[in-house]
Amino acid sequence: MKTSDIQLAEMLEELNSRGKVRIVLEAGLYALILLLLVVGNSATLVVIALNSRMRTIPNLFVASLAITDLLLGILATVPIGFPTLVLSKYPFSDTTCQYHGYTVIVLALASMQTLALMAVNRYYRVVRSEKYRSYFTKKKTVIMIGLSWFYSVWAPLPYILSGHKMVFHPFKFFCYLQIDSGPFTAFMVTVYVGPPTLVIMYCYLKIFQTVRSHTNNVHSTVFGGNQLNVEEIKTARLLFIIVVFFNLCWIPVMLIDIVDTIDGKWIFPRETYVAYSFLATVSSALNPIIYGLLNNNFRREYLQLFRCRHCRKQPTVEPFALMERRKKIKPTSATC
């Protein structure tokens, strides 16, 4: 029996030995995160779909990110990860485990590619604005997003086609790569994580330098002969904050995987791997909160969406008010 198999068996035993209080606390907190993930990202997509003013080019990238986050919730985490945490075992088949691990990897990498496209979009809007309209039409933007998804879908295939399988990790409570997957981890970091990270760093560095050099113009700034208003700078800042929080969640996750891969075994205590899974899920739930706090348009649309009952009452009140006004105006017009 391999060392990794012995480790997994010991982890499963520790998972099963949790007390009821710990199960309730972990499952309750995870359920709250999942609720925020599903409701928040669903609201984001509804707001963009129903309001033509919100269907801007930057928001197409926001929609793509919301789709990856929502799919991670409804395809992998809610139906598979959450029951596993509650039941203290993996109650599904090996086929489901392979699907689970494949889906998690694809959606996480698709989010990474989308963030890189967001950075490129803001770079051309702020730094190279004279070329922005020729590169970023709605049609071209949709094609970019589609290609980034297609690119991500192929990511786990070298691992699977080489004969490796996803394994259930009891401490992470989801299926993922085996511990001896060093070459594939290096491939994934080199091809799917490294390049978009460098693109994001370069783009936002250039954006920061450009905005900083024009801080004296508060209300509007001219770049390359085109006018760029404060809202565009705010959008760049918002998307940068999304990248920051994404990295705050995912850098610890990547470091844990890298350390384990180099060491050749899972070396951290259970609490570390639970935090690992919680952080990965939180990253998918945070974006709608950031939009609501930092973007006036999203905040207004969220409020209207969640006050839909109040909005439905308004049509019945408004005609009555208009009728009363007519009653008051009518006698006046008659006396005239």
TrEMBL record:
Domain G-protein coupled receptors family 1 profile span(s) in chain numbering: 40-291
Main localization of the protein described in the UniProt heading: membrane
Bilayer topology annotation: Multi-pass membrane protein
Membrane listed as a keyword: yes
SUPFAM superfamilies cross-referenced by the UniProt entry: Family A G protein-coupled receptor-like (SSF81321)
One Pfam family linked to the record: 7tm_1
Subcellular location: Cell membrane
Keywords of this entry: Cell membrane, G-protein coupled receptor, Membrane, Receptor, Transducer, Transmembrane, Transmembrane helix
GO cellular component: plasma membrane
TM stretches of this protein: 27-48, 60-82, 102-120, 141-161, 181-205, 236-253, 273-294
SMART domains named among the record's database cross-references: 7TM_GPCR_Srsx (SM01381)
One function term, GO molecular function aspect: G protein-coupled receptor activity
CDD domains in alphabetical order: 7tm_classA_rhodopsin-like (cd00637)
Entry keyword Protease: no
Family statement: Belongs to the G-protein coupled receptor 1 family.
PANTHER family xrefs: B2 BRADYKININ RECEPTOR/ANGIOTENSIN II RECEPTOR (PTHR24228), NEUROPEPTIDE RECEPTOR 15 (PTHR24228:SF59)
Protein name: G-protein coupled receptors family 1 profile domain-containing protein
